[in-house]
Amino acid sequence: MMTENTNRKKVVEISNLKKSFGADLILKDVSLSLFEGENLVVLGKSGTGKSVLIKCLVGLLPTDSGSITVFDENMTSASGEKLALIREKMGFLFQGGALYDSMTVKENIEFPLRRIKKELTESQIEEKVKEVLENVGLADAINKMPSELSGGMRKRISLARTLVIDPKIMLYDEPTTGLDPVTSNEISELIVEVQKKYKTASIIITHDIKCAQKTANRIIMLNDGLVFKEGTLNEFEASNEQLIQSFFN
């Protein structure tokens, strides 16, 4: 698995990020980089600010201070139009999946495609939808409603809907939460397949150690609003730190 970042371009750089809600300081001083083509796992217990981190990254939450750069563009000072253009290069898979219940699988996947890739013909749209469904192993679900799908299938369809716009960066927020161990493993394997097939750089927010072990090229652990440790999976597994051992043992 790729771990060496020498000569790789940084696609995300977060420096000295701080974020609070009232008197509650969630991110105290977080810095990290994401390199092209790598899967970066952000590990930590619930409430350590993992999800807040990526919501700041995509501009869903304003930051208190620090800088966030994506593809050499400053997200914290970007205008609405510029922010929208940067976001079009980023795919999000949030915990709930957030499919539209009143739309078929096909309509769900077409929705972002019609909004962002307006130059595509109807036949090109149909081809793209079939392609991403095949890539997540659910080509036969194209005319189903979300209510007919299992939790794991809904997660796969949500991923297909994200991939249909050809994102350069993928953001996964607790992608295996609420899934049984077999389905969790399938989703983790799919994340690795997406990395290889689409050449994405990904940030994977999780507290699921099996997901981290399956997907990570590099790991950053957050604790108490700070970066506690950064390194490879082997370095984490060999660590004697009690907090890290509590995850890996």
Summarize the structure.
Helix content is 37%, strand content 26%. It is an alpha/beta fold and 249 residues long.
What does this entry look like structurally?
The chain is α/β, with parallel strands linked by helices and 249 residues long. It folds into 2 domains: 10-89 and 167-248, Rossmann fold, CATH 3.40.50.300; 101-166, no CATH class. The chain has 9 helices and 10 strands. It has helices at residues 50-57, 80-87, 105-116, 122-135, 151-163, 181-198, 209-215, 233-237, 242-248, and strands spanning 10-21, 24-35, 39-43, 65-70, 73-74, 90-93, 169-173, 201-206, 218-223, 226-231. The strands form 2 sheets. It has a 6-stranded mixed sheet with strand order 6-7-8-3-9-10, sandwiched between helices. Strands 2-1-4-5 form a 4-stranded antiparallel sheet, with helices on one face. The mean pLDDT is 91. GO terms for molecular function: ATP binding; ATP hydrolysis activity. Keywords: ATP-binding, Nucleotide-binding, Transport. This is ABC transporter ATP-binding protein. Residues 12-249 form the ABC transporter domain.
DSSP strand content: 25-35%
Query: Widest sheet: strand order?
Result: 6-7-8-3-9-10
N- to C-terminal separation?
22 Å
Considering the protein shown, what is the CATH homologous superfamily of the largest domain? P-loop containing nucleotide triphosphate hydrolases
Structural class: alpha/beta
Q: Report the total helices.
A: 9
Shape: globular
Q: How many structural domains?
A: 2
> Under CATH, the topology of the largest domain is which?
Rossmann fold
Mean pLDDT across every amino acid position: 91
State the low-pLDDT regions, or none.
none
Largest sheet: 6 strands, mixed
Percent helix, as a range, is 25-40%
Computed CA radius of gyration, to the nearest angstrom: 18 Å
Classified by CATH, the class of the largest domain is Alpha Beta
Query: Architecture of the largest domain in CATH?
Result: 3-Layer(aba) Sandwich
- SSE topology string: EEEHEEHEHHHEHEHEEHH
Tell me how many strands there are: 10
Pfam families: ABC_tran (PF00005)
InterPro entries: AAA+_ATPase (IPR003593), ABC_transporter-like_ATP-bd (IPR003439), ABC_transporter-like_CS (IPR017871), P-loop_NTPase (IPR027417)
GO molecular function: ATP binding; ATP hydrolysis activity
Keywords: ATP-binding, Nucleotide-binding, Transport
